[in-house]
Amino acid sequence: MIQLTAPIVGGGDGAEGGRMASRFGKRPARGTQTSGTPMSDKFRDSDAPNASTGGGSKKKRSRKRSSGGGAGGRGKGRRDAAADKEPERKRTISEPKGGWNPETFEIDKTFADLGLKDSILKAMDDLGFKHPTKIQAALVPLAMTGVDILGQAKTGTGKTASFALPLLNMIEPGDSMISIILAPTRELAIQIKQDIEELAPHTGLKVCAIYGGQSINVQAKQLEEGPEIIVGTPGRVLDMIERRYLHLHDIEFAVLDEVDRMLDIGFRDDIKKILKKCPKDRQTIFVSATFTDEIERLARTFMQDPEKLEVSAGALTVDLVKQQYVTVEPWDKRRMLAHVLTHEEPALTVVFCRMKRTVDSVVRYLDRKGISAHAIHGDLSQAKRNKVMTKFRSGDLNVLVASDLASRGIDVEGITHVINYDLPDDPDLYVHRIGRTARAGRDGHAWSLVTPAQGSLLTEIELLVNAEIPAQKYDDFEPGERPEDWKDEPTGGRPTYEVKGAPSEPKKNRFQQDDAPDVQKMSDKEMAAKFPGGIVPSKRPGKMMGGKAKRRGR
């Protein structure tokens, strides 16, 4: 007998798995009774007393359950309190070397020219912001007119502030749960919340972030305080709505960050459910660095006559990113990565891999080579992810090896290098990856390790970013021989497998009709037996029912 077990979901790359984790986590069901007493509402999130403490004669070993469903997607074992503590973020804004770049900033304008309140301008001055970027100068005044907006701009040009500033300007203290901002990953949701808090210390507005991995009780208490701005991931937002901790009846502003990722297949249904619960007369703002025609058409179905702002004309990547690629055989990629990190000595580096198992493998290899590196991907608990991001932001960690979880919107001050250990399957992801460096007018480097079989994929990336990526050679690197047990990995897409010993069939066009089979001619005696009366049909009947005949019971 085969026993089927439900999978434990811990949050995939670029996807928010906390809501699914809360479904499979071991949590007492609502309405169950312990010690003959009805369960109180305050215990409904798995903080209920253990049944064994109710005075029963049979003693059972009690297990301390995690407080709050969806906390890390594991549902058992002692809860790490670090999961409830958001990663610290410290940054200072200073004028970039070489001055304010006119390709990124509107140097003839200040934030006072955008019509913002004095309380917001004071925070901008305290942070060191002087000139708005091009997307901020265009989107902020337009958003304050109340129209729906589709905004596209290069990575690292301040898209978060472009939608946060008009919200802070239009929302008044006490307007509880009046705006919601959706992000594809937990890290991005936390970062957006922290960005808004930096801009809102003098406004009296409260911001709350709800995402999988953190205790539901912690987030429920924050929602009870009536925050005006809610930032969240789609899964946890729906979870909190189902638990009646959150409602969207009063939403006047809905924002989707990284909308191309939010409206793909993985998030599309959740986004539809959330926006359907919001009032139709809301203001909707969608922003991203990349927009496909399909995503734009779909986005417009959620909006009312939106204005499109495109501030990324020409190349999608900022010119301050120095892009290069290194040709290397797949079995030499780890050696080449270590060679680059030890010879170039980058200050703060993010290494992107396509698969989570590759992330772990690369971290182990770099540790053996004496290079301190940490991993971040969707299979790590929220506590570990928070610790890694805190170390990286504080400068205690020089090399971060990540899946594409960290490619969306993560803003860490001082990242000098981005290395694509694996080229992404989707060229759009390349734009988001290298956008982690050269932010806010600073310089940055982006290197890619490209195998000989990935030439066509590199060409697709060059066509997308509208730039030719030069090659970089390391003459002191000695390529290794192909290992005997080496198995080639797919260059992208779904892997293909070859079955040995199976007969091979010639390839043919799937629209081509099969040849008519050879029919042996029957004798006159066989014809008479098969067709009495001698009438042999030569074609199909002229009229057919076409499946329209009524059947009994239908």
Describe the secondary structure blueprint for this structure.
Elements lengths: L17 H7 L93 H10 L6 H10 L5 E4 L6 H12 L8 E4 L3 H14 L7 E4 L5 H9 L4 E4 L1 H9 L10 E5 L1 H4 L2 H13 L5 E6 L4 H8 L6 E4 L10 E7 L5 H12 L4 E4 L3 H13 L4 E4 L5 H13 L4 E4 L14 E4 L6 H8 L9 E7 L4 H11 L58 H7 L24
Parallel strand pairs: 1-6, 1-7, 2-4, 2-5, 3-4, 5-6, 8-13, 9-11, 9-12, 10-11, 12-13
Helix pairs in contact: 3-4, 4-5, 7-9, 14-15
Task: Provide tags for this entry.
554 residues; alpha/beta; Rossmann fold; 7-stranded parallel β-sheet; 6-stranded parallel β-sheet; 16 helices; 29% helix; globular; disordered N terminus
Explain how this protein is built:
It is globular and about 105 Å long. It is of the alpha/beta class and 554 residues long. Helix 7 (234-242) crosses helix 9 (265-277). The chain contains 16 helices and 13 strands. The protein has helices at residues 18-24, 118-127, 134-143, 159-170, 186-199, 216-224, 234-242, 259-262, 265-277, 293-300, 333-344, 356-368, 382-394, 427-434, 455-465, 524-530, and strands spanning 149-152, 179-182, 207-210, 229-232, 253-257, 283-288, 307-310, 321-327, 349-352, 373-376, 399-402, 417-420, 444-450. Strands 3-4-2-5-6-1-7 form a seven-stranded parallel beta sheet, with helices on both faces. The chain starts with 17 loop residues before the first helix and ends in a 24-residue tail after the last helix. Residues 1-77 have low confidence and may be disordered. Among the domains are: 111-310, Rossmann fold (3-Layer(aba) Sandwich); 321-465, Rossmann fold. Helix content is 29%, strand content 11%.
